[in-house]
Amino acid sequence: MTKISPEFEVTMEEEDVLEVSADxxxxxxxxxxxxxxxxxxxxxxxxxDNQGPSxxxxxxxxxxxxxxxxxxxxxxxxxxxxxxxxxxxxxLSDEAKLRxxxxxxxxVLLKKLRDAxxxxxxxxxxxxxxxxxxxxxxxxxxxxxxxxxxxELIQEKFEVKKLAxxxxxxxxxxxxxxxxxxxFACAEIESARAVVLRIGEALEEQENNSQAxxxxxxxxxxxxxxxxxxxxxxHQPSKVMDMEHELRAxxxxxxxxxxxxxxxxxxxxxxxRDEENKYRIYxxxxxENLGSxxxxxxxxxxxxxxxxxxxxxxxxSSEGSWKEIISGANKSIYAPEPFDVGRTLQAEIVSNGQKxxxxxxxxxxxxxxxxxxxxxxxxxxxxxxxxxxxxMNGQDHASHSVHVFHVGKMRIKLCxxxxxxxxxxxxxxxxxxxxxGDGNNAAKAMFWQSRKGLSFVLTFELERxxxxxxxxxxxxxxxxxxxxxxxxDQV
Length: 491
Hints:
This protein has three domains: 72-235, Helix Hairpins (Orthogonal Bundle), CATH 1.10.287; 281-359, Immunoglobulin-like, CATH 2.60.40.2700; 370-479, Roll (PH-domain like), CATH 2.30.29. The chain is 49% helix and 19% strand. It has helices at residues 55-73, 75-123, 127-206, 211-235, 237-277, 370-378, 463-479, and strands spanning 34-36, 42-44, 282-285, 294-298, 310-316, 323-325, 333-334, 344-351, 354-359, 382-392, 395-396, 402-408, 411-416, 419-425, 431-434, 445-451, 454-460. A hairpin with a 2-residue loop joins strand 16 (445-451) and strand 17. The two termini are 82 Å apart. It holds the Pfam family SCAB_CC.
């Protein structure tokens, strides 16, 4: 490690000396000091040895050493950042192992299915045998596709493992660097203590000199030390910023890999669902996210009519250990509401004593940008939405004029101009949820019972406005110790 200290040139003004004879020579520009010894002998005082470095140079050098020492100790924060990223990479590796186990189970299921079809082909003949052979070819094609997906997942796993190894090596290097710099710092601290003692002795000697020259030298030293510190602080953050940029780039790569992995998982789940739907009587159609709606569709000509069947929707937990009935959701179309985010939905169809179920491929995803939109609305004391009254007290509303739906912190109001349709404070008799009936506008419609005997079905302009109104009303009601939920029996 090279330490550089600035060089200083000291110029001294020569004293004026009177002219003397050329035969006289002086070894110095001042008279020597004498003292009388024994027998009146003249003794000259010993000369002082000024061969050592000046006080100014010693202070300057030690200031530079302490600044360099502070610079080395800053790498400890970088080591902690490497450890955090290493933990994230290990978590991704564990998730890849879980996906590998699920893929192995898929191969086992496909093999069992193919063996069963082979057994049927040996027992059937004619057209049925041809159908079985077609099914065998479709299973083989599905196995090839699953193998391709596994190849992509293996490649992704290799990249994640490579990234984890890189982060682990970087973390070990950072720890070694911290340990090495710590030892250097300890050694330099001991050296600095010795230098401080020497500086103290030099300062005591300096106090015997002129007060004016002392004050001037100290001021110059302070200015030089401050300038040296300023220069060090200007150049030190550059290395840290470079490493922070590298860490940010690594985080972006990990985020992109995670999103790509989730996308592959969803595509694989949809592919499996499409294959399974070929053998099912009913299937769900629609996007499985907040802001859309799901529709039960028959997959076979032999499927019973939905109009003559009994339908009931349920919410399932993420593990599938329990399910909750959605009161009033007994139609073939259902639009998820904010309560359904993160939960799996299931519909039961009962016809002629036979019960069939259809389930979403996974939990309902939140709407993009809805959370930030609601956070913006929460900063206001009152939020207004444009709505149209579709039903009032269970009867279709003839007028399709636009009304204003006010959601406040203490109450909800529905009005048109100066005419107020309803205005009620949050209470236990109030009910509010998404419409659970039929129709393509279910994702935009909301059911609101202001009080017993007065209820409305309101249609918003956008799906986002409907979900934001539900979330705002439930948040404000919860602040008033009121829980807003759906009705026990919605028409």
